[in-house]
Amino acid sequence: MYKYDEYDQAVVDARVDEFRDQVRRRLAGEITEDQFKPLRLMNGLYLQLHAYMLRVAVPYGTLDSRQMRMLAHIARTYDRGYGHFTTRQNIQYNWIKLEDAPDILAELATVEMHAIQTSGNCIRNISSDQFAGAAADEVADPRPWAELLRQWSTFHPEFSYLPRKFKIAVIAADEDRAAMRLHDIGIQLLRRDGVLGAKIFVGGGMGRTPMIAPEIKDFITADDLMSYLEACLRVYNRYGRRDNIYKARIKILIHELGADEYRRQVEEEFAQVKQLGIDPPAAELERISAMFASPPFDPAADDEVDRSDPDFAVWLDQNVRQHKQRGYAIVNISLKPVGGIPGDASAEQIDVMADLAERFSANELRVTHAQNIVLPHVRIADLKLIWDQLVEARLAEANLDLISDIIACPGLDYCSLANARSIPVAQKIAQRFADPARQRDLGELKLKISGCINACGHHHAGHIGILGVDRKGTENYQLLLGGSGAEDVSLGKITGPGFDEDGVVDAIERVTDTYIAVRQKGERFVDTYRRVGMEPFKEAIYG
Amino acid sequence: MVDDIAHLRFREDSPHEEPAVTLDSFLADQANATAVRIEPGDDARLLAPYIERLALVEVSFPTFRDGRGYSVARILREAGYRGELRAQGDVLVDQVPLMRRCGFDSFAPTAAIDPEVLRRSLDRYDYHYQKAADSLDGGVQPIWKLRHG
């Protein structure tokens, strides 16, 4: 894992001091709320329906036990004893007092954490593959590149007042576990003629106008990465729309210019920027990469596991994934218990996960964009011990990638932008499909719920998506089918007229019944949908 | 509170007094002007052939949220402009350090800036991760340079 040196620490400490001063000026009335807003947003502090919400960055979703315990400590000390893990691999606290925020940041800084650029019209926390460094299918660990980007984007002087927020994801495998092409910039590492480089996609995103990012550069090496991205951002900063907040994301610029014209402008800018010597030397990527070296694996680690406990066996099959190292496994801890709030964890649960990581997973944890937690480096021989403790902590839900593993935004229960509630809908769906055997029979089924058009719950990318809207003062839920945020990326299509809360749950059941009736062997729900199209589902829903 | 522009200049020379002309006028028929005003939608690169004879470029910030002027500043400095580069308009104290890094060396904010807050804010960060306009001519070195020499 990355370790701060004196420079990294100095930057984060200075940020705490800066934000303390900004909060003091706001509380003293020296600056208006309008002036304070972009300052607090650049530090992840939102004003929500009931209180301030603080979003803490978990760079590329990686953290260690000490940092995880700090998250629990903050939940207990400054919030109501829980936190909410987000689709951008961060954690947010929903009940924060403005005057506490500087102290929270000071505590975070003691464990090399911060809330820098977790909101605002700037380059946000860099996200990545939650299996990085553990996956059998990666060409390299994407996190050193993500850390390079974290440093480059931190307080970037030119790109702190962009037209709109800017999200970057880095992956290094063909299987896309980070919704890479639904980001403003998606970076996929690959090897060409033995050289490690990156393919760059620009202009993806969800929101009210979802777009899949087109490829803008087929291959670029680390030597040119910063210059190239700086060129991408500069074209956007200069020409991205600022007249309409709903058209200000880079996807609209690229849609309006066309990918070819945008690429031409970037290349022209790159020719200028490359002269400036802004790319760090290879030694910097090497320095960072050394800190992401694999933990010492035991080459004699055993592959055998006792499957005699049927509940344990189900969890093994559903939540444990293959590791690159023989004798090891990747454990996915579901934060989606039936009836719970997707992504929420109590301080006690966060502590349990920190303890498990310390004891069994080389001290490492990951946050996933599906709002779950990963123990990346676990010996197969320890799986039963881990599962026993997860059961005790009510963290052993065996539903990874099943219909109850729902991504949901906070919705109208917390968010001031929402038109409809998301959490109760997620809970009702999970309850309707609570039978684990039924869920497993339905197989991989990614269900995603947003409480408004901004799409924080990724509804466009759900195999089944739900969008909550306000229809003449009542909550109404539209149903979408056929989206995907993975390597088979696609955008869902609306089935037809929306439903009320119970109606949408019924409609989903008719959709899954139809799938079971028409599926062919080995087909996932989304495969069947792609083969048969919308009609059979529409027929089943609307008759 | 400081409302005297002289206090927000980071240059040794005396302030340039000639009124600035718009970029369009400059390019159309006032090429002898030595001061130009850039609005957010203007393409600052069009000034590149003339920068040797310009003494002042004033970049307008109609709202603090509009960040196009940051790119304008860097583009002009990268092109070799050494005259006064002034941020004018809705410029807030917390933005001045970033603007300094992009190459602005004078400020004409619409609302007065507290000099004490400004001083703290300019002194706060000892290190920066990236190169910017303040790194040209061997100025501020980015952290990676400090790490690797």
Molecular structure report:
- The complex is a heterodimer of chains A (543) and B (149).
- Chain A is an alpha+beta fold and 543 residues long.
- Chain A folds into four domains: 6-109, Sulfite Reductase Hemoprotein, domain 2, CATH 3.90.480; 134-289, Sulfite Reductase Hemoprotein, domain 1 (2-Layer Sandwich), CATH 3.30.413; 310-392, Alpha-Beta Plaits, CATH 3.30.70; 407-542, Sulfite Reductase Hemoprotein, domain 1.
- Chain A has helices at residues 6-27, 33-41, 65-78, 101-109, 143-153, 222-239, 250-257, 259-273, 282-291, 310-319, 347-360, 383-392, 423-432, 436-442, 501-518, 525-532, 535-542, and strands at 45-47, 52-56, 62-64, 82-85, 91-96, 127-128, 168-171, 185-192, 195-202, 215-221, 320-322, 328-333, 344-346, 364-367, 373-379, 407-408, 447-450, 464-471, 474-481, 493-494.
- In chain A, the strands form four sheets. Chain A has a five-stranded antiparallel β-sheet. Chain A has a five-stranded antiparallel β-sheet with strand order 3-14-15-12-11.
- In chain A, helix 6 (222-239) packs across helix 8, helix 13 (423-432) crosses helix 15 (501-518) and helix 15 (501-518) packs across helix 16 (525-532).
- Chain A is globular, with a radius of gyration of 23 Å.
- The mean pLDDT of chain A is 96.
- Chain B has 149 residues and is an alpha/beta fold.
- Chain B has a single domain (5-119), classed as Rossmann fold (3-Layer(aba) Sandwich), CATH 3.40.50.
- Chain B is built from five helices and five strands; from the N terminus they run βαββαβαβαα.
- Chain B has helices at 23-28, 68-78, 96-102, 115-123, 143-148, and strands spanning 21-22, 35-38, 56-61, 84-89, 106-109.
- The longest helix of chain B has 11 residues, at 68-78.
- Chain B is globular and about 50 Å long.
- The mean pLDDT of chain B is 93.
- The A-B interface holds A 5, 7-8, 10-11, 14, 17-18, 21-22, 25, 30, 35, 38-39, 121, 151-152, 154-163, 226, 234, 237-238, 242, 272, 276-278, 280-281, 283-284, 287 and B 40, 64-68, 70-71, 74, 78, 92, 94-95, 97-99, 101-102, 114, 117, 120-121, 124-132, 136, 142-144, 146-148.
